Amino acid sequence: MKRFFIFIFSITEGFCFTFSQSVDQAYLIDEKSNELINKTNFISEFETISNIKISKHTPQMLYNLEILCRIWGFFKYYHPAVTAGKYNWDAELFRMIPLMLDAQDDIARNEILLQWVDKMGTTVVAKKIKRQKNTNIYPDLEWIEEIEVLGEQLSHRLKIIKNGLRNESFSYYFSLKYGFQNEMHYPAMQFDDDGLRLLALFRYWNMIQYYFPYRHIMDKNWNEIIGEFIPVFLDVSNEHDYKLALMLLIAQTCDSHATSVYPEFIHKKNVFPYNFSFIEGQMIVTKCLNERLSISSDLKIGDIVIGIEHLSIEKIIEEKTPYISASNHATLLRDLGLNFTETKLVNFHIIRENDTISTDITSFPSVFQQQKKACRLLSSDIGYIYPENFDIETMTEIKILFANTKGIIIDLRCYPSSYAWDLEQYLLPEPKSYIKFSLPDIEYPGMFRFTEPKKNPVRKNRDFYKGKIIIVVNEYTQSMAETMVMAFQVAPYVKVIGSQTSGTNGDVLSINLPGNINTQISGIGVYYPDNRATQRVGISIDEEIKPTIRGIIEGRDELLERAIYLIENE
């Protein structure tokens, strides 16, 4: 959702205030010099390896590591000495892990952690976390109150840090301007390095804990994930299994922005010259992408695919689902990658007119398909817009081509070009509130606050388009496309039809993990002005309509047909 990137990440510019370890004075420092200072201080014995090997683990060890993960992450984003960049925080973790493994019980563990906390220095108690009307979600810090787990002294020290004085605009590991930052990539990682694998888990878990705006609407309680995944990450020892463990972890976010760290696991090197969609609960051949390449294959539009090679479609879905981060079920089915394969010839099992057929389908390294025009007339009265192929000249063409039409269909079953934002000025007579955000709070990590509703950035316009506007959506309507629907929905005479959109909205944050692995998550919350959510549920739809198998066999686009009917008859 790049449109709002500047709005979100231009909050802090130029100089930042940071605090010394004792928090008794502040000093002025810009981001460049801060980076240089910390690079000098961050040299350690753990530049490429952690030197940690765990041959076997006990329940006590696992629990100790879980507590360490929580406190290490809490310090990373809350302790003023760490947020000022005074420590190589990865190295601190590698020094603490062996101590946690050696602690024989909770009392011994808490004593070690207490000594570590005291070494970090105390903080000035400022104030308790502010509770304001515009707060969307609060930091999840109830665990530091658990005296029966942490002991009274350790719990007390953590509460002081929670309520301590912190910089309101600068944190070494997270920036409102750049997102997550200053994280080491460990490109030469040895995948049997237990410490680096734990670092990947601890880093990611705490990033979600403190800076994911949709932490509260995941399928599972995020607090349960860390204990579940520590043994998973300890029990892998090669690159393949490490990446699968990361995929399992990332999938817990239920965020379709959370890209795969192992794309070749889903998207193989070859592709079939067909599109497949799940319609009426079945995997259907919906489109031939290239007539020339499909000549050698016996698949027809409307065929029901019941199996690929020796696996049923149900079994394939079952096996792939745990590794895919999807905001909702429609998006999960979209992202299964069933049109990709490793092999040239693949056996498909299909149903066609009540007959079960087994046929070999040829795949190709790439499949060229003809591009749709950005705009065209469906009839003298109806214009059609496909925003994916918008360019700098399209808006001028639309104004001329659609001047005398009764209505326009905007087909957002695609990812739009940024030039398609030009439609706002064409569709709206004046600015209207259509969106609000939930933004992270660096002073209180884990807290997200609502902004005031934002209006379309358009001028008053008497010459706005006065015909009907039908917007068509489905599971391919994601991120910026969803935001675009929200922006256009407030125009006069607009109706949105189709099926559930991706439910994946907000600027993305990039995440770097050991092994030079990159992924991302949604970084800001996106809501309607009346606080209705968009994440996971999708954009508000006026009329739900889905394609049918019969319609596909007959070569009809039933959503487009309905859009035409609404313009002509209502």
What features would you highlight for this structure?
33% helix, six-stranded mixed beta sheet, single chain, alpha+beta, disordered N terminus, 2-enoyl-CoA Hydratase, Chain A, domain 1, 20 helices, 3 domains, 570 residues, six-stranded antiparallel beta sheet, 25 strands, Pdz3 Domain
Structure description:
By secondary structure, the protein is of the alpha+beta class. The protein has three domains: 18-252, no CATH class; 270-362, Pdz3 Domain (Roll), CATH 2.30.42.10; 375-569, 2-enoyl-CoA Hydratase, Chain A, domain 1 (Alpha-Beta Complex). The chain is 33% helix and 19% strand. It is built from 20 helices and 25 strands. The strands form seven sheets. Strands 7, 8, 9, 10, 12 and 13 form a six-stranded antiparallel beta sheet that branches. α16 links the parallel β15 and β16 (407-411). The longest helix has 20 residues, at 59-78. The radius of gyration is 27 Å and the shape is globular. The model is unreliable at 1-40 (pLDDT under 50).
